[in-house]
Give the backbone structure.
Amino acid sequence: MTILKDAATQAAPYVRRIDPNGMSAPIQRLITEVIATALSVDVLKRALGSGLTQVASILRAIPVAEGRLLERGIRLVAGSNPDLIVLTDNLRLPVTKAATEIVAMNEPTLVRSLSLDADQGGRKSYTPDLLILHRRTGIAHLVDVKRSLGSYEVSRIAELKQRMLAASLVVPDLLYKEHRRLHVAEVRVVILNAENQRSDIDNGVWPLTDLDHLVEIAGAGHVIEELRGLFRDQVEANWGQAIRAHCAKISSICPSVPTPSSVTSATTSLSNDRPADHDARATLTIGFARSPRLASG
């Protein structure tokens, strides 16, 4: 796959566009870093040599690594827009009872400009993948990145959006107190779906292709889509290399497996060595099971 193929030529109403030459190397470094932690050839070979439990662990690690890659990739792309502040760490937002009630009883458009005290705390919390603040407009986007919503029930998506909206009410106070007096005029929540299915633009579920509108950079969504493709290609390549190495190792330390022809010859030889009366069969009786007491009577 060729990264950033056509990204610079996509039509979009934004002044800023992705620079293919400038983004290619950082994107490749990001993929290499993410894969090196859990999906390198050496890690895969060790898993194959350790048994099914380790292989299953690797399979679970793939979507986790891809999710982390998407978050870091979006942060990298958003960094191309100097008007944006992108926060990703230590964003555990309290979901208070008051916030939950406000969200439950009002339309989202009526509460997105409200603010609650971030110090109120609460038993529940929400940690966004990204918080993107536009310096000039004061609009903050609370972002949850999903690899796919295919397995999500409608009720589960609705619950996630309610929790995000409740958490968003403390964002203005939190950013003002803990992040250098950043001013927030409005907070909007968005779920980014990387599989581009089950979109609901008006109600906060966006396909990854609409990332351009979130970061105001033409070609941003295209870059992240190709980032996913490159990641998957590299994981497949590493897996194939690990499989070949494992098979070579097994064939060098294990006795050779009999071929079908040798098995057939051995069977024929055993058959020829049987006594001539091997077809003679004992008398066979078939019936119901009998208890020991009845059998002895």
